[in-house]
Amino acid sequence: MSKIPVPHQKLIEKYGPHKAYTPKGGFEGSSEPDKLVKTHCCFCGMQCGIQLKVKDNKIAGFEPWMEFPFNEGRLCPKGVQRYLQNNHPDRILSPLKRVEGKGFEPTSWEKAMTRTVHEIQRIQKEYGNDAFAMLSGVSLTNEKSYMVGKFARVALKTANLDYNGRLCMVSAGAGNKKAFGLDRISNNWSDLKHAEVIIIAGTNISETFPTLTHYIWEARDHGAKLIVVDPRVTPIARTADLHLPVRPGRDSALFGAMLKILVDNDWLDHEFIDNYTSGFQETIDAVKDYDLDWAEETTGIPKEKIQQAASWWGKAKTSFLLHARGIEHHSKGVENVLSCINLVLATGRIGKPYCGYGTITGQGNGQGGREHGHKCDQLPGNRDITNPEHRKYISEVWGIDEKDMPGKGLTAYELIEAIHRGEVKGLISICFNPLVSLPNNNFVREALEKLEYYVCIDFFLNETARHADIIFPGSLHEEEEGTVTTAEGRVVKINQAITPPGEARKDSDILIELAQRLGAGDKFNYKNSEAIFNELRVASKGGTADYFGITYEKIEKNMGVFWPCPSEDHPGTPRLWEDRKFKTPDGKAHFNPVSYREPSEVVDKEFPVVLTTGRVVSQYLSGTQTRRIGKLVDQYPEPLLEIHPKLAYQYGIQERELVKVKTRRGEGEFPAQIVETIREDTVFIPYHWGGKQSANQLTIGTLDPVSKIPEFKVCACQLIPSGKKAPDIKLSKAYQSL
Ligand SMILES: Nc1nc2c(c(=O)[nH]1)N[C@H]1C(S)=C(S)[C@@H](COP(=O)(O)OP(=O)(O)OC[C@H]3O[C@@H](n4cnc5c(=O)[nH]c(N)nc54)[C@H](O)[C@@H]3O)O[C@H]1N2
Ligand SMILES: Nc1nc2c(c(=O)[nH]1)N[C@H]1C(S)=C(S)[C@@H](COP(=O)(O)OP(=O)(O)OC[C@H]3O[C@@H](n4cnc5c(=O)[nH]c(N)nc54)[C@H](O)[C@@H]3O)O[C@H]1N2
Ligand code: SF4
Ligand SMILES: [Mo]
């Protein structure tokens, strides 16, 4: 695979240099922006409000948006630097085609479109419709997510559509649907502030959701007890009242043992259990043997700590339990989630003031993007593609015959496996970088090389796109209007600040033109983003994720509306379940029995150390965006191997020594960072880099049987010290080219 960079200089000559912002800071010429645009950060699920400064159709900086109720002006390092993407020299400014041996060359929209449509039709004719697949992502707005779902089913007519939330929120989604029949956090963030006990399980919120930390601090100011469950002493764990240093992959043993303690001490809400839940007896039967000695041995957490956590949780009057990928990225991610929910239901503390439960959604539109139909088994409104009534309703909204609606397709990693087996031959991707973000990525690379045709829509040339035949230059967050749904279920407005540069186009315009050329133009007749949203409202009507009563005007007026919102006069629902009417078929909240089982790969003599992976504050996901911004790179320039001093001593590893980390899938070399803030039997590597620096060369492709999420958080590795020190790091330029 050639890695010749895109010839940007020519395009910059053609379209003019990026003038508005100088990397040293400030404006060239007049210092007054043309306008300030209220919108939201393009990165994580907090969706902090921000005002973008626009000058000469470029984003030239930002101002805090003090009135936006969630973050009141506060931002994290990524939010502060995000505006630097828009003037970036790596920005793709025209369609590109790959020329074997030469890298990428600009091409015209006409040629790129014609070739793409020709290849889609050729592959589908030769191998069947499902042989052309689509992968999507939830950095996309609700409008684009909705349209991708419709595009794949109505224009491409393929069953094989899935999205990057498959690597992210699906374990939580599946668990929540089983227990509550609906997939959203129960309460909005302000209920956190007065909770008496807060459990944070498997989330490094100070680095991954920094602006949410403020809510935890406020709760602590009000006397809350904070319990953090993490194999690392993360920044939030350092301020916790109790840190439970769980051995990776053992959370359901911990929560099961805590449930047993609740039962033994009768710290239960019988009124709630009897009237509003089902499945309690089977669930407590499943943990009856989980005594403290077993729990200590299995989880690696001292039993006094487990007892203390259960007693604080059991006796509290108000509480909040939050979890994220630390417990969800497992081959038993759904079981981990259910074991948390069992603790919440046993104490009946949900859907009341200061009593809540939920997953912290990761990506910018991780919430809305998992509701409106770009999952392989889903239709808008969180409907089920295998349910005849749901199929009928959405077919009517889309104006198609129900029998033309494809069925359930493959999930993201299964799709890669099908490509590898030669069953899927063509791929279109938007907003997804699987070569960095999927596990066991040497296998992913082999699969990509087998594709007969691959077309990618992105604004930067990401690692996966380097395997594409054609790249369509799409739009940044600030270049198209739409809505996103924040991690607390608040639908907010993304306002367009500038138009896409050069020949880049809005993502939705690219999909609309493709749909037209594929002969489905009449189904994609949208005047603007609001028209797409209005169709989404109807499509979601009556579904569990009901947006029907939400309008652009209402969002602007109220700075967001919480779904479900079934009618225009409905105020929205910041707190779910106050009426105790759950969305399961019997209207009850369901306990689910969980029996502990081991991770798919455990340590042995050959691979004796546990490897876990995750994030750092200044980098975002596969790094395509944040590795291009110098100040964020300087904050954390390269992936480091976090290792405890005792383990380092055992191997004779020195600070910054290059250590080879080897698993059954692959190997890579990482500089050691010796820290006391990690378990002695575990090492941690952040995953935001590609190629030889990629943590996902090492991770395992085992999937949860229900959610199909990969087991990113635990596998077994070997450590081989090199005796060489890692080279010193040089400070970056403001714009880093990749
Ligand atoms: N800076 C930054 N912020 C982000 C992102 C980013 O890339 N960078 N991405 C966004 C997205 S999409 C997501 S999904 C979220 C993710 O947000 P988080 O889930 O908070 O992030 P991670 O770093 O993946 O994992 C969290 C913690 O899980 C711990 N952990 C590992 N194994 C286990 C285990 O077996 N049990 C338990 N209890 N804990 C374990 C790790 O030590 C880590 O501290 O962050 C969002 N915010
Ligand atoms: N080992 C390990 N692997 C992991 C994880 C882990 O904890 N450990 N975490 C997993 C998780 S939780 C997640 S969410 C995934 C994320 O993995 P990915 O979704 O692959 O990561 P992104 O970096 O978001 O890739 C998205 C691409 O979309 C582009 N993009 C962003 N916004 C837009 C847009 O509006 N329009 C268009 N056209 N393109 C856009 C970006 O430029 C980027 O190239 O990674 C997963 N992989
Ligand atoms: S916390 Fe999330 S949404 Fe807020 S500024 Fe940081 S990355 Fe952006
Ligand atoms: Mo994520």
UniProtKB/TrEMBL annotation:
Pfam families: Molybdop_Fe4S4, Molybdopterin, Molydop_binding
Database matches in Gene3D superfamilies: 2.40.40.20, 3.40.50.740, ADC-like domains (2.20.25.90), Dimethylsulfoxide Reductase, domain 2 (3.40.228.10)
Region described as Disordered: spans on this chain: 365-384
Domain of life, source organism: Bacteria
Keyword Metal-binding carried by entry: yes
Keywords per UniProt: 4Fe-4S, Iron, Iron-sulfur, Metal-binding
Annotated ranges, domain 4Fe-4S Mo/W bis-MGD-type: 34-90
InterPro entries recorded: Asp_de-COase-like_dom_sf, MoPterin_dinucl-bd_dom, Mopterin_OxRdtase, Mopterin_OxRdtase_4Fe-4S_dom, MopterinOxRdtase_cofactor_BS, Prok_molybdopt-oxidoreductase
PANTHER family linked: NADH-QUINONE OXIDOREDUCTASE SUBUNIT G, RESPIRATORY NITRATE REDUCTASE
Name of this chain's protein: Molybdopterin oxidoreductase family protein
The organism's taxonomic lineage, starting at the top: Bacteria, Pseudomonadati, Bacteroidota, Cytophagia, Cytophagales
